[in-house]
Amino acid sequence: MNNDTEFLVAAEAEMAALESWLEDSDADLDCLRNGNVLTIELESGEQVVVNIQTPMHEIWCASRAGGFHFSFKNGRWIENHADRTLEKAVADALVSYGVPLSEIS
């Protein structure tokens, strides 16, 4: 990514896709978007937080499983220290809370 504008376009598209996927799922959760932060809250009170980090050109995902950083590589948001997509990380976190979800197709 060459600049903040390109980054923000790609990051916003990813956040919209995540939010749409979660809202279309049968899972009992709420998606709350406030600016660059998407909070996924379960009935139990557990949360997964996904946020855009413009200065770093990353998207971060945090849950009780830890905090993970994702960069845009080859058209996908890939974890910096693993070969996992952001979608898979969100699904993994939610499954760890007992929410059955599949990765975004």
Q: Helix-strand pattern, N to C?
A: HEEEEEEH
Strand order of the largest sheet: 1-2-3-4-5-6
Give the helix level as a range of percent: 25-40%
Q: What characteristic shape results from the CA principal axes?
A: globular
Q: Could you tell me the strand content as a percent range?
A: 35-45%
What does this structure look like?
A hairpin with a 4-residue loop joins strand 2 (37-42) and strand 3. The protein has a 6-stranded antiparallel sheet with strand order 1-2-3-4-5-6, with helices on one face. Helices cover 30% and strands 35% of the residues. It has helices at residues 4-24, 86-96, and strands at 29-34, 37-42, 47-53, 58-63, 66-73, 76-79. By secondary structure, it is an alpha+beta fold.
Keywords, separated by commas or semicolons:
single chain; 105 residues; alpha+beta; 6-stranded antiparallel sheet; 2 helices; globular
Give the topology, please:
Blueprint: H1 4-24, E1 29-34, E2 37-42, E3 47-53, E4 58-63, E5 66-73, E6 76-79, H2 86-96
Antiparallel strand pairs: 1-2, 2-3, 3-4, 4-5, 5-6
Give a quick rundown of the structure.
The protein is built from two helices and six strands, in the order H-E-E-E-E-E-E-H. It is α+β, with helices and mostly antiparallel strands.
